[in-house]
Amino acid sequence: MARLLLFGGKGGVGKTTTSTSTAVGLADSGLKVLLVSSDPAHSTSDSLGVQLSSSPTEVEGVSGLWGLELDPEARISDHIPKLTDTLGPLMGGEDPDLNASEMVLPGLDEAMAFDELLKHLENPDWDVIVFDTAPTGHTLRFLALPEIIEKWADKIIKMHRLTGGLRAMMFGSKDGEKMRDELEKFRRRVLHVRRILCKPDVTRFTLVTIPEKMGVNETIRAHESLAEFKLPVSGCVINRMTPDLDHDFIRTRRKNEALNVKSLESQLPDLHLHEVELKDTDIHGLESLRSISKELHGEISISNGLGPFSIGLGLEVHRGTWSDGDDVLLHLPGIVRDDLSLRSESGVVYVGINSREHPVPFSRPAKASEVNAKLENDVLKLTFPPE
Ligand SMILES: Nc1ncnc2c1ncn2[C@@H]1O[C@H](COP(=O)(O)OP(=O)(O)OP(=O)(O)O)[C@@H](O)[C@H]1O
Ligand SMILES: [Mg+2]
After folding, report:
1. DSSP-assigned letter for residue 386
2. Pocket test for ligand 1, best of 282, 292, 294 (most atoms within 8 A of CB)
3. Atom of ligand 1 nearest to the CA of 280
């Protein structure tokens, strides 16, 4: 499973610039990187100077980098809104915790974005996925969804028992069950996203901010809410630091900025701070992105062996898949047995992770029934029959 690097912070502080630079730097160092953005304004395309779409597009000029702009609106599965539309008015009055708008709203679109992200994270092709998150204070509201869905699913069962004829009128007899199954699958996937986001060997958050009081306060709040969900925050980029120039106005600004940085340092002493200066032009195109990457991470170099390797951000990465004779090993942190399945078709073995299938790269045709699967310490070991 790939590494996931998330960049978050308030509007306009430089999330796209720092995440895109990081992705370019990592790809330049030899990793296979997918840069994902959920910003409907397509700023990642603008930043790279390359038109991206909702499927991975190779970025010209950076070998190993693909970009993807999510369209969460388009991805909200049919079942979820249908379910809410139909059940909302019936259930809303009964339970103050569960009114119709609550059911649709608490982070469903973000959940869909993260669910899509998970699909790519599970794809053994990628080494690192860099996610430029949307500038909302609620990016992580969706983490509470599994519990909401649980409550919701109970209501549906109750309704099945209570409403008899009405149910048949509304759903036909089987549709309610089908919706419940859909919800259960979705709930499991969100739970899995939550497990993955909380694993420091997979996920790291980088907060991005500017050296102003408001920026610092916002960062402290964001850090608090990430800590509440036990999400690993590894660093903070302080972007747009005023450069050292000989002018009173500049000196005063720099003095204030230094105080704000100091205040951030003293309130969040464990956070690694990286400063990036304000440049004399916007940051667009590969050349400026590469120079920001150097400023942020230095020269990133990777050792190219099998198994885990380190990248310049103090992170250790497992390549998605590696092989060891007749064994194929997949690094799948946070996976539980029940989320896995194995199947083969025309000699290709597929691993299903939360109902999504990925072909296992193996040199010979094989059947799933002949493959021995063992999950241990987050590594799924598939032993293929000898030739
Ligand atoms: N250090 C810098 N020096 C000069 N310009 C910068 C710097 N960092 C970012 N910019 C410019 O500032 C603008 C906003 O940056 P960016 O798009 O990265 O912010 P963002 O946090 O992604 O914004 P949004 O919240 O809208 O997604 C861009 O035009 C970018 O080129
Ligand atoms: Mg942006």
Report:
1. P
2. 282
3. 4
Could you tell me if the CB of 243 is within 6 A of ligand 1? no
The amino acid that residue 342 corresponds to is: L
How far the first Cα of the chain sits from its last, in Å, is 27
CA separation for the pair 111, 97 (Å, rounded)? 20
How much distance in Å is there from the Cα of 67 to the middle of ligand 2? 14
AA letter at 61: G
The answer to whether the CB of 278 is under 6 A from ligand 1 is yes
Give pLDDT tens digits along the chain (387 positions): 778 898 988 889 999 999 999 999 999 988 899 999 887 778 899 999 999 988 899 999 999 999 998 875 555 544 455 445 544 444 444 454 444 434 444 566 667 777 778 788 878 788 899 998 866 555 666 677 677 777 766 666 566 556 555 555 555 556 566 666 766 777 777 788 888 888 887 888 899 999 999 999 999 998 988 888 788 888 899 999 999 999 999 999 999 999 999 999 999 998 889 999 999 999 999 999 999 999 988 877 665 544 555 555 555 555 556 666 788 888 777 778 888 889 999 999 998 877 778 888 788 888 999 999 998 877 888 999 888
Given a contact cutoff of 8 angstroms between Cβ atoms, the answer to whether 302 and 31 are in contact is yes
pTM score, whole prediction:
0.79
Contact predicate 71/54, CB 8 Å: yes
Is the C-beta atom of 11 inside 6 A of ligand 1?
yes
Q: How far apart are CA 167 and CA 153, in angstroms?
A: 15
Please give the number of the atom of ligand 1 that sits closest to the Cα of 208: 21
Mutate to test the pocket of ligand 1, among 17, 208, 240, 280 (most ligand atoms within 8 A of CB): 17
SS3 content of the chain, % helix, strand, coil (to 5): 45, 25, 35
Domains in the chain (CATH in brackets) are 3-73+109-139+199-311 (3.40.50.300), 75-106+142-194 (no CATH), 320-383 (2.60.40.790)
